[in-house]
Specification:
Rossmann fold; five-stranded parallel sheet; alpha/beta; 26 helices
Length: 664
């Protein structure tokens, strides 16, 4: 027999449910059912166990609450309102243009929202990342307390493999500061969960080295016991709380119905439910004054504590890094240059943390791992993370790490072709404006014998389609360093770094001192080679390339200048375009300079799909690339097959120019 709940607690819960009903009804959309079933846990947690200060939403000592079931956003907004962090006007504007209460919580938008959630499962993985970052930070610069990470998940979250993959790592790493509450109401949009799952979650999580509790998610005594266990000072395992609950618990006639998951309750049901909960059925967006007092009885002291807190020293100083140097003409893969730079950054940038998805030798992260040590259950100061073959969980975990500590700079590495597995988490990096570096080696068909399953063709262009993401494809070792420095120098911009497996020459155009080279690369495009034209009647030739193709295009144009009698008097320019997104940020005058005069003839070269390159070449320009899948063969054979050798590129440009009427 359950212990009777405190009437004041029940009043808080009833008022939260009232706000959930009113806001979803006013918006004509939303998800009230799960917010109802999770409400007992969430309300008690925020009132009694969650360590946070509403007046100081970025207090470093605060616990983090991640609503992985982001569709239950009105539950979170109601909690933020009761704690004084969100106005009633914003509650009324739920899901409206420009409000602080969008359909799913957004961390960069609304104070008190710790992570942007909605794509199911990723909140769980970000919570794992936050727990890792908290333990790393405690080892690097001990705080007065170790913050705890609380994650609220639903049935859908735990059907996503990204969540279960991250949870496997959480158990392996022994993240005792992580609590995952599973609101198990057994209902999802399409109906009962037993239509799609018969997993024994208790056994499954115990096999992943979690401590597991099974409780009644509406019994306040059992909920408090679970929270007491979760807040024990020393824990060696993450805690998984299975709260058996009822969808839309407390609704007048619609408890347990799948219809309540994704649709507002009907007006008649809202009135009847309010009456059942002891609320005024005629009042909307109303909270009884005593509810605020009861909800905040503990938070006033936490505000005082946070007000007197001295922030810790930042991990990200302005370090003097001994960047590796290279001779012009020296040939090496940009993935190798990345690994060498990373090893030098490691001891100077204490917030630099991350690892590879089981590709350390291929991604060249081994030297970094040796320099910083591996993060394990027994070594919390290690900053190398062995993610295993878990690309999607890796990317989502990195997002959580970046969200946890502003001066952490997380990175993760794999092959470019596997960016498809990670894409939604990369997108979430961009939406949340977190400085995660997604490193992708083996960036084209030139990886060779592994064949088309591993050869990236469409991936670079696909990643460029994601807003607010730097996609950086450096031309050589020195440009690789510049890309790393640009990423490391800021705190809000996620980036992709695409690197070669094959060796490429170190170019004369990158001989500048680091600061000067950084300034060129920061423009997104810069002049890599030119020939001054002696015949002004000839239209100038403008060429554009990225990565390994910059050297190829330069060599091809040099061949044109030296060997084509009709071309050696033509003005020619080749631009390296390491980051289109940075070019987009430049003044119109600079972008016009890169494109050249209206009558210029323009060509592009990239070992990937040509889709999108017409923004530089125009519809009448020449775009050279790979518009089919690759083949299993040595990289040199593939270059020849696809016409990407310098002589082939030279011949193709010459034929194209000679076959086109001179517009000058």
């Amino acid at each position: 027999m359950s212990t009777p709940a405190n009437p004041k607690d029940l009043s808080v819960i009833a008022n939260i449910k009232g706000l959930v009903m009113d806001a979803t009804a006013a918006a004509h959309s939303g998800h009230p059912g799960g917010a109802f079933s999770s409400c007992d846990f969430a309300a008690l947690l925020w009132m009694e166990a969650l360590h946070f200060a509403p007046d100081f939403p970025k207090w470093p000592l605060r616990d983090r609450f991640v609503l992985s079931a982001g569709h239950e956003s009105m539950l979170l907004y109601s909690l933020l309102h009761l704690s004084g962090m969100l106005s009633m006007d914003e509650i009324r504007r739920f899901r409206q243009l420009g409000s602080l209460t969008p359909g799913h919580p957004e961390s960069h938008l609304t104070a008190g929202v710790e992570a942007t959630t909605g794509p199911l499962g990723q909140g769980v993985a970000m919570g794992v990342g936050m727990a890792v970052a908290a333990l790393q930070e405690q080892a690097l610069r001990p705080l007065d307390r170790l913050p705890r990470i609380w994650v609220l998940a639903g049935d859908g979250d735990l059907q996503e493999d990204v969540a279960l993959g991250a949870c496997q790592l959480a158990g392996h790493w022994g993240l005792g500061n992580l609590v995952l509450y599973y609101d198990k109401n057994d209902i999802q949009i399409s109906g009962p969960v037993d239509r799609v799952s018969s997993l024994d979650f208790k056994a499954h999580f115990e096999s992943m080295q979690w401590e597991v509790l099974e409780i009644n998610g509406h019994d306040h005594h059992e909920l408090r016991q679970a929270m007491e266990l979760a807040t024990q000072a020393e824990r060696s395992r993450p805690l998984f709380i299975i709260g058996q609950s009822t969808m839309a618990q407390g609704a007048a006639t619609m408890e347990g119905l799948a219809k309540t998951h994704g649709e507002p309750l009907p007006a008649q049901e809202i009135a009847a439910t309010k009456s059942r909960l002891g609320l005024d059925p005629e009042a909307s967006f109303a909270v009884q004054p005593a509810v605020y007092e009861h909800f905040n009885r503990r938070l006033k002291e936490l505000n005082v504590l946070a007000a007197g807190y001295t922030p810790p020293t930042a991990l990200q100083q302005a370090p003097e890094i001994a960047w590796p140097t290279y001779e012009t003409g020296q040939s090496l893969a940009t993935r190798v240059a990345f690994g060498q730079a990373l090893a030098q950054m490691a001891p100077k940038m204490l917030g630099l943390t991350g690892g590879s998805a089981d590709l350390e030798p291929s991604n060249n992260t081994g030297a970094f791992a040796a320099a910083v040590g591996e993060f394990t259950r027994n070594h919390r100061s290690g900053r190398n993370l062995a993610f295993g073959v878990r690309e999607f969980p890796m990317a989502a975990i990195l997002n959580g790490m970046a969200l946890y500590a502003p001066d952490f700079k997380p990175f993760g590495a794999t092959f470019l072709t596997f960016s498809d597995y990670m894409r939604n988490a990369i997108r979430m990096s961009a939406i949340q404006k977190v400085p995660v570096l997604h490193v992708f080696t083996h960036d084209s068909i030139f990886l060779g014998e592994d064949g088309p399953t591993h050869q990236s063709v469409e991936h670079i262009m696909s990643l460029r389609a994601i807003p607010d993401l730097w996609v950086m494809r450096p031309a050589d070792a020195r440009e690789t360093q510049a890309c790393l420095r640009l990423w490391a120098a800021q705190g809000h911009q996620p980036a992709v770094l695409a690197l070669t497996r094959q060796n490429v020459p170190t170019l004369p155009c990158t001989e500048d001192a680091p600061q000067a080279l950084d300034a060129k690369v920061a423009q997104g495009a810069y002049l890599a080679w030119k020939q001054e034209g002696s015949d002004s009647t000839l239209a100038p030739l403008y060429g554009y390339a990225t990565g390994s193709e910059v050297a190829t295009l330069i060599k091809a144009c040099q061949g044109l200048a030296e060997n084509e009698e009709s071309l050696h008097q033509r003005e020619m320019r080749v631009y390296s375009l390491p980051c289109w997104e940075l070019l987009d940020e430049q003044p119109a005058a600079y972008k016009a300079e890169v494109l050249g005069p209206a009558h210029a003839r323009r060509v592009s070269l990239e070992a990937g799909v040509t889709l999108g390159w017409t923004r530089f070449t125009g519809l009448d320009g020449l775009t050279m690339g790979v518009d089919t899948f690759g083949y299993s063969a040595p990289g040199s054979d593939l270059a020849r097959h696809f016409g990407l050798e310098p002589q082939q590129v030279q011949d193709r440009i010459a034929a194209w120019l000679n076959g086109t009427q001179n517009p000058a």
